[in-house]
Amino acid sequence: MHYSILSHNLTNSPPPVCETSHSMAFGFLNFVMLAGLLGVTLPVLAHLLSKRRFDVVEWGAMQFLQMGHKTKRRIRIQDWLLLLLRMGLIALIAIALSRPWGQGSLFGHFKTAPSRDLVFIVDGSASMDWQENANTPHKKAIQWVYDALETLQPGDTATLIDARAQARFVIETPSSDFKAIRDELSKLPSPTGTSNLAEAITEAMKLLMTTNNVSREIIVLTDGQALPWHLEDLFAWERIDDLKRQPEIPPVIGVVNLGTSGIEKNNFSVDRIALSREFTVPNFPIRLRTTIRQSGGSTIERKVYFEIDGQRFEAKTMDVSLLKDGEALVEFEHFFPNKGTYLASIIIEDDQMLSDNKSDAVIIVDDGIPVLLVDGDPNVDPTKSESFFAKSVFAASGEKTPWVRTTIISPEELSTKTLLDQRVVFLMNVNRLKSDQVTSLANYVADGGGLVIAPGDQVDPKSWNPLSTINELPFVPATFEELKHEERNAKEPTTVDHLTLETPWLSRFRKESGVDLWQTRYSDWWSLKPFADATLVPEGNAEVPEEGHTIEDASVTKIVSTKPIVLAKLSNGAPLLISRRYEKGTIYQLAAPLDADWSTLPSKNDFVPFLHEMVFVLAVSDSRRNVDVGAPLLLPLKDQQQASNFAVNGPILQDQPARTNLESRTPTARYNDTTLPGLYTFRSLVNLNQAPEPFVVADDRKESNLKPLTEGDLALLAQNARTQQIETMNNLSTTQLAAQTRTELWWLILLFVLGLLVAEVALTRKMVKGGHTALDMVPESA
């Protein structure tokens, strides 16, 4: 038994002085009430004082009035019972006035349910779309919440979170409008991608810290899959434990498993599409590669289909063989005859989880790409100029439909004006740049332009190396350390290490796929030292990715400058090609020029496609059509278009307004809310005949692994009462009342007092009728 001395403190701050004084006074009053227990002595004193001694006169007939031994014992017992009843009445009244309380399962049954604040977390990951008997865990979750809302009382509030890669509040604030919650439940989008239940619980606990009701509950509706819990993220769960310890009455976290247990699930999935390039020109081949996976199952063959804008190419259909928990790599090559924006899809046969059976990617096909060649070593003989081979490569596609339109200038002509409308700029053996040229180049790359630095013997390291930072932000990927030369009697020639060509656009030039790029011999090269620093600025509530994570992990982070990445190396281990992202553009830095002075590169058959692939990759500006969840959608505007001329549609969007991108130096429409993966489009409100501009927000296909929570995982979730498995709302309510609320028992004690009063009256009446006073009149000797 416990006695309440202090009132409940529902905040995290210490009580004010006046509240503390009030609590002390209240505690003293309780002490005075408990001192009333001394009143139990009053019936004893009354009993002793009421005993009277009489003179006994013996007379003859008295013997006929003597009581038997059993009668005297009964009367004495009744007398003592009456005394104990009266003492108990006084003791119970004193205890009731001190307001005792109890906590635990026994006392919880005597508690009336308090008003509640609830947060329903519905797992929105792809595994919740598992089809079984025309039902899915996601549909079960929605129905569960519907039923739970029916049990809520006036004064209760509820909030709804759609748990995805980022927690999405469907109902922003706790609401008693349960009809509005039911309406939003019916609008929940289909399950896609992955989810982060640890993050969703954290957001729910933060919200509950702002609510007023005593009872606070979080209900997670999921399917028992292990992946969305992120149990390996110890920091996230330590944060949940800390948030749970802060309030005096911590929230209860109930977990409802709506999946089918005990049945092995066999699932097939298509991974994200890797494009050889996102930007291309008509009649130039593009390759689309992805991985087909099987989770569980046994050896089986599945059909894989290829579609463009929903049109299936039956001739490209292929069969792949998959082992249990196995995977297979597939690749398609395609030519686009006309310019435009296309949606490419790779699809497998349907199974019981439909959301991961298809993967999409957007490809932009445009006219020839404008490229600026800055020749740092011009010559009267064109064949000896620095830009000769590059110009020849870009003109090789033909003059009628050139894939690349080149302009050649000298370093002195480089300016903001000459950079206008260029998609890629090659600085070819440029000795140095003026300060205003550096500023123009930085602004050009920041707006989405591509820059290639191809050094030669004219490069002055003392002028270039300070460009490693511009306005204290990392810019050039690496410093020029020293000029290296191949030894005359080297045992092995210095060539390209083909195993380092792992980037999608470079992988086609590996030894097993390409022709002869890997055989290129280098006699001279610059020793490059990549910078290890990077600058990432979070957008909104995003967090900067931890060290070691790639830029893809920073999908909701504004990119100022990323850490340099070595894309290719020489056979001696020296960097050959280094990349760095600078805001919306990309910078490539080579270790050697693109002519025949230091290498045999121009003589190789792969030289032409190598330069074309580089240009196509760099030509993708800030309008990236395939982005990660949370990344903004950016559409370049043309011909005096306004952002207000476009409406955005998506998985749950209908004609949402696009905004002007204030961060871009060129006109761009922007849309930020991409928390749900799927297909988004910008629809013109002015030209209704214009085809919508598509974007793909890619999801995380790790969700296709349906491995369930193990016994160890469940034990970890239940550790220190983190969560508890429930089936119905009643399970959660009973636990909340029994274990986490104090039950005042004064009313229960008063019921006992009433019962004792009834018993005292009945016993007194019985004793009076039985002539119990005669016992005091009979001498002991009798």
Structural class: alpha/beta
User: In which range does the helix fraction lie?
Assistant: 25-40%
Instruction: Write down how many β-strands occur, each being a DSSP E stretch of 2 or more residues.
Output: 40
Shape estimate: elongated
Q: What count of helical segments does DSSP give?
A: 18
Q: Which sheet architecture does the biggest sheet show?
A: 7 strands, mixed
Radius of gyration: 41 Å
Low-confidence stretches: 1-23, 536-557, 773-782
Placed side by side, the strands forming the largest sheet appear as 19-18-20-21-30-29-28
What is the residue-mean pLDDT, rounded to a whole number?
A: 81
The percent range for strand residues is 25-35%
Q: How many angstroms separate the termini?
A: 49 Å
Outline of the structure:
The chain is 26% helix and 26% strand.
Provide tags for this entry.
7-stranded mixed beta sheet; 782 residues; 18 helices; 40 strands; disordered C terminus; alpha/beta
Would you write up a description of this structure?
The protein is α/β, with parallel strands linked by helices. It is 26% helix and 26% strand. It has 18 helices and 40 strands. The strands form 10 sheets. A 7-stranded mixed beta sheet has the order 19-18-20-21-30-29-28, sandwiched between helices. A 6-stranded mixed beta sheet has the order 5-4-3-6-7-39, sandwiched between helices. Strands 10, 12, 13, 14, 16 and 17 form a 6-stranded mixed beta sheet that branches. Strand 18, helix 9 and strand 19 (404-409) form a beta-alpha-beta unit. It is elongated, with a radius of gyration of 41 Å. It starts with a strand and ends in a 5-residue tail after the last helix. 36% of the residues are buried.
